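User: What would this chain look like folded?
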Amino acid sequence: MIRFGIRTGVLALLFLHLMPFAARAEQQRLFEHEDRLAKLYAIELAREKPDPFVERKIEAEKVRVRAAIDDELNDFINAVMSGGSGEILSLAGSYDRQRSLVTALETRRNEVEIDVELLEEEDKKYYLSPVTQTGAVDAYRITGSRAELLARRVILEERQKALHFFTGLQKDRLKKLGIEQQLQQFSLFISIGKYLAFVLVWILIERFLRMTLFLRIQNRNRRYRAMKMFTGGMYTIMTVWILAHLFSEYPRFITSFAILGAGIAIALQDIIKDVIGWVVIMQKRLFTLGNRVAIGEVTGDVLDVSLLRTTLLEVRMMTDHDVARSGQPIHIPNSHVLSKQVLNFSATSDFHEAEIQVTIPHAADWERTAKILKDILEEETREYAEKARRQSASRTVHFYLPLEAKGARVFMELHLSGIRFSLRFPVPIGERRFVISRLSGRILGAFAKAKIRLVADPAAA
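Assistant: Here's the prediction, encoded as structure tokens.
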């Protein structure tokens, strides 16, 4: 039994069971090679000097032994991997069978290594020692002569080399199967990540082209229509591409999506609405950080826009005459932008219009009064008006607006109580009261110098 390994067990029996007739024929060939090697070594040992011809015959026999062992191991590997049924295994089944094969090959290699060590020990004890070179037969000896021992050791060493080679190959294949199995386990997440990355890249490309190409169109009406058509076409192409790939990769996508989507929509409907609201905020640019906005009945400055919530600071009710600061943060679900009105005070600029009404007697010099009011108003609000114009031109480039931001204006209206002047001017959002207070002081001072008297206006009150 030294030719097959001293230790035998279940794996050896499995091998004999699975090994086809051709593989057993290879075993018979190994017996014949062993006999020829034993005769050649007997001739070599009988001579005092090495014979080159005999050595070449031994080397040639070693090559034939290695070829026979390779054929035997190939038959063994094919038999184990096919399982005798020829069925097509799943990736997990292939991995388990490959692991069993590697274990079997390692076990056989360990057995052969032990056999080689036993033969080396026997060679030292019975043949190389001067005391025991008589060739006396011992009950523990495996071979009957040193020539037979050398022949068997050659076959075992060639088998050892072959097993080392085939075990390395099968371990590499087992490693690859393990990686494929891990990738298969995370294939769903990888696919989701792939589609999310594609959507993100597509959005960035669409935004880049929209910002670089269409801003060159000077006509607002044409630019507005071209940008709307371009954006709609880009997202339509993206949706069609994603659906086409989903249908090709997952033929049962419609059925699975309908069943799974219904359950997810019911269980996570509020979260889904919040996510959709976030997408609307980002894509439509309803507001950004620092904007003063009103969502429903709540008004404040945008502190943060997350996937599910938008955080506002300085909350006030929309019914207040002025948007003042209260310093209280509030977290609003993003779904509110889908069902409630959204007012962005900073959509066109960081300024809004304020108004002051001044009434003088009918007999007063209204032309001089109008000039004083206009000079003071333009002097105090000229910087605000310029900034408002620049911001309005920049922030409304994507929209069709027939009117641009206006500067300070003075309107006059005749009433029974007197001549009423209405002063309209831009002020920074949140600073209306400070600006009006400063303007009122300057107007009162100028009127006192010009001896212009103010009268009460019941209609203005």
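The radius of gyration is 47 Å. If you want, I can go into more detail on any region.
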